[in-house]
Structure formats: C-alpha cells, structure tokens
Amino acid sequence: MKIKRIVRIALLVVVGLGWHGDAGAARLKDIAEINGVRMNQLVGYGLVVGLDGSGDGKKATFTVQSMASMLEKMGVTVDQRDIQVKNVAAVMVTAKLPPFAKRGNRIDVLVSSIGDADNLQGGTLMLTPLKGIDGKIYAVAQGPVNTGGFGAGGTASTVVKNFPTVGRVLSGAIIEREVPNNFSASDNLQFSLHNPDVNTAVRVVDVINAQFAQPVAHAQDAGTIEIIVPDQYRGKMIALLARLSTLEVQPDNDAKVVINERTGTVVMGDQVRISTIAIAHGNLSIVVKENLNVSQPLPFSDGRTVASPNTQINVQEDANQLVVVPNGVSIGEVVNALNALGVTPRDLIAIFQAIKAAGALQADLEVI
Q1: Which of 72, 122, 141, 330 is most buried (most C-beta within 10 Å)?
Q2: ∠ at Cα 216 (230, 28), nearest 5°?
Q3: pTM to 2 decimals?
C-alpha cells in the first residue's frame, strides 16, 4: 500500500511539473503571427486649436491656409492676411488600425507638430479624417491632446520636460470603415515566425501535430508554417486560434552578440561560446595640461607683461596581466571569465571585436 501511494504521489508531481511546460518555452502567439491578421497604418492632417500662444508662427503658411479653408467650409470668409495662428498648430495625426476592428470602436491617435509650434499642451484636435495606404478614410479623430510634458520660459531661459510638441488623444478616433477579410471561411492558416529558424519551425510543426494527433501542419520554409484546418474546426476559426496560440514551443536562437557602441551596451545570447584564448586588456591615458606663467611688472614702471607657456604631460597605463579565458560551455561561464578581467561594458566591445577577429568567438557579432 505504501509503495502504491508513493507511486501515485510521484505521478502527480510529474504531471504537475509537466503541466507548466518546459523551461524557456514560449507560447506560439508570442513567437509567430498569423498571415493576413495585422495592424494597418493610418495617417491624416489636422489642426490643434486652443493653444496659449504656443502655436505656429506666420512662417508656417500651410497653417494659415488650413485655417482659412476650414473657416470657409463653415461659412466664414476671411482674408489669410488677417489670420493670426499663434493659438493654432498644424499636426500630422497617426494611428494603428487593429485587426478585426469594427465600426464604432475607438483607438488612440498620436499627434505630432509639423510647424514651428512650441507646445501642444491644452490644445484640441479638430475633426481629422484618417486614411489608409489606399486613400480611403477608415477613421475620424477629434479630442483634447495630452502631451505628458510641459514647456515654460521667458526671455532668458526656458524649461522643457519630455516633448510637448507630440501628444496623444486617448480613444480619440472612431473607426468608420472595416478592413474586409474572409478569415473564418479559410481552409488553412499560415503562421510566420518572428525569427525564422529551421529548428524552431520543425518544433512548431511537431507540437501542433501532436496536439491534434494528425499531420495538419507542415513547414513551407524556415519562417512559415501552414496548418490545414481540421474538420471539427470548420467555421470555428477563432476557437482553433485560441487552441493554437497557447501551445508552448521551445524556440531555437542563433548565437549572437549585439553591441551598441553609442551606449556601451553588450547583449549576449545563451548560445554564445568562446574558445580557449588568452586576453590582455590595458588602458592608456594621456593628459595634457597647458598653463601660462604670467610675469606682471610693478605699477608705474616701464616693464612689460610677459606670458610664458607651461605644458605638463602625464602618461598612465594600467598594468593588466595576461589572462587565459577557458572554453566557455555556458553563458554564465563566459560572463564569469570576462568579469575576471575587471573590464567595463565599453571595454567588452573592444574585447569581443578582438576575439571575433581571432576566430575564437563562436557567435555572430552584430554592431548596432
């Protein structure tokens, strides 16, 4: 009885551990996207009114023309020379139309000044049509602009926080046109991997086929997986997507070291390996100081002021010893070996470039 009880407990533990998936596994929805189901970019030109003297100047002639055109459509005829636009700013309005969006749904819009306005804080975006790449209007935007910053100043100095010339209108656009699709009537699906890889594609196919106990998925290439809709999911595409999106797959990543020389950032993947190599890294600093020794004559004398230059040069070089970095079998060992040199992230950039040149870095080195 005790043996049976121990076996049952062990089975429960194994099932419980297996239920949480493999360590490092990712959901299919996080590493791939469905072909044909994507965002669409929208753009429009509009005016922000109600600014406190921080709008466009007279040099922004398009703002004056837009104001005159808008007032004329409202039955007010004015001369462009009589319009003062210091309380008005011309802006470009951008938004993303999500997939499966329906008429009446609201989306956020981003408002960006294109003139010489100083601040959009407190302004109101006038009714602006948003068009797609096909030139059709898919949404209209209007509402108060939130900048998330401020700008204030006087004649001698100014204070600016964040970017007050860019703002957002929360839920400011109403969708007026839907993107047509026959998604539910399709007989197959195609998933595109965010990072195409042969091993990842094969693993995705194996997980999907194991889930449905039949070969419904196959890889067209390293980045595309085609799935034939099973008979029980005909006309139930959303239910099929809900089942597929939660499947966990262990993605395979390339060995890569990414370096950003501008910020001194170094990022290494878990597949990075370094062959046994000896490294010596030293810093050479040269400081040059220029001083003038001035000899000032006594008052009411016929002497002259003499200035003689004095140059001081200080050279210092760190006496770092030669260190042998063993063959790293994991990212932790590689990091520990490099940390033993006492180098900074910016030093790592030069070290990795030298290791790559020596042929000891078993990874791609990418500089961004």
Answers
A1: 141
A2: 100
A3: 0.67
